[in-house]
TrEMBL record:
Keyword Membrane included in the entry's annotation: yes
Protein name listed in UniProt: Nucleoside-binding protein
ABC transporter substrate-binding protein PnrA-like domain sequence ranges: 46-344
InterPro entries for this protein: BMP_lipoprotein, Peripla_BP_I, PnrA-like
PANTHER family in the record: ABC TRANSPORTER GUANOSINE-BINDING PROTEIN NUPN, TRANSCRIPTIONAL ACTIVATOR PROTEIN MED
Length: 348
């Protein structure tokens, strides 16, 4: 697998408004500007679509940056309410001449290979799923989310005043379990006796857990009521509910994927977002489109973004963890140097 080296430069400023057009089957669509010159980019969102202030918005920010750099235009599509039309979205974009096409989220992994094989002249990328042995024209954009989450666990355990923290996962899948595994390992590296509550909003196969803020609030509130003072939300759009629970409980929360202190949209929630575990989907998407423009895309392969390549990390917006940056930096270096191997699956 190729190791993609990207700079983690500057704060992430993301568009936070939802698509304002709705197509048949509940699919949001609409060209989002750009120019006639450059690539015609197809962007198929994960559950919740643009406006989740997290994962999907980060992908869109990467497309925006690529269009600013190289021109082009983008067509956006979102899954219907039960996310059963993912293959149809990719097919629609390919039929309409969009190239490259970027599928946001591992849930497209079950369908992208079959679609891509029907359109061998189109370049496809998928976020959070592999392109290896899928199709010769599919590139996987993968992230060492466990490594970034380890640092989140370090921050939580170091800043916790109760010795009790929590983790709210959106959907119980191997990918989100890697966030859990890293978070638990990082917290226990700091405090082996720390109490860590862990719960998922929905089971595997039910993707509603990524877009249910009300349920996220209920789950997180239970953790705060039980004594946790910091809760990590690896739950997409449901993370807003975790932030709301933190605000109601005088607690703190950890965001995910993008710098949610900057993107949350509600100034009343900013003070509770202690940090965010960054997964630089924006950088990965921008880099992939740049490779497409340059003619250097290698299908049937993966690009891997980890701590060493600065593809994952922590945000410092708000200044809440500035005082422990040396601790974060120390653990980061130990992981990069191979002194710490971060687990990808929960150990208990």
């Amino acid at each position: 697998m190729k190791l993609a080296a990207l700079a983690l430069a500057g704060s992430l400023a993301l568009a936070a408004c939802a698509s304002d057009e709705t197509g048949s089957g509940g699919s949001g669509s609409g060209a989002s500007g750009g120019s006639e010159d450059g690539p015609k980019i197809g962007l198929a969102y994960d559950t919740g679509g643009r406006g989740d202030k997290s994962f999907n918005d980060s992908a869109y920010a990467g497309v925006e940056a690529a269009i600013e750099a190289d021109g082009g235009s983008v067509q956006e599509l979102s899954p219907n309410s039960d996310a059963s039309n993912r293959a149809d979205l990719l097919t629609q974009l390919a039929d309409q001449g969009f190239n490259p096409i970027i599928a946001v989220g591992f849930a497209y992994g079950d369908v992208i290979g079959e679609v891509a094989q029907q359109y061998p002249d189109v370049s496809f990328a998928i976020v959070d799923s592999t392109g290896v042995d899928v199709a010769d024209n599919v590139t996987g954009l993968l992230f060492a989310a466990n490594e970034g989450s380890f640092l989140g666990g370090v921050a939580a355990a170091t800043k916790s005043e109760t010795g009790h923290i929590g983790f709210v996962g959106g959907v119980e899948t191997p990918l989100i379990q890697s966030f859990e595994a890293g978070y638990v390992a990082g917290a226990r590296a700091v405090n082996p006796d720390i109490i860590i509550d862990r719960q998922y909003i929905s089971p595997a196969g039910d993707f509603s857990g990524f877009n249910d803020p009300a349920r996220g609030q209920v789950v997180a509130q239970g953790m705060f009521d039980a004594g946790a003072d910091i809760v990590y939300a690896a739950a997409g759009g449901s993370g807003i509910g975790v932030f709301q629970a933190a605000a109601a409980s005088n607690g703190r929360a950890i965001g995910v994927d993008s710098d949610q202190y900057e993107t949350v949209g509600d100034p009343a929630l900013q003070p509770v977002i202690m940090t965010s575990v960054l997964k630089r989907v924006d950088n990965a998407v921008e880099a992939y489109i740049g490779q497409f423009v340059d003619g250097t895309v290698e299908g049937g392969s993966d690009e891997v973004y980890d701590l060493a390549s600065e593809g994952v990390g922590l945000s410092y917006s708000g200044g809440f963890i500035d005082d422990i940056q040396s601790t974060i930096d120390d653990y980061t270096q130990q992981i990069v140097d191979g002194e710490i191997t971060v687990p990808e699956t929960p150990t208990d």
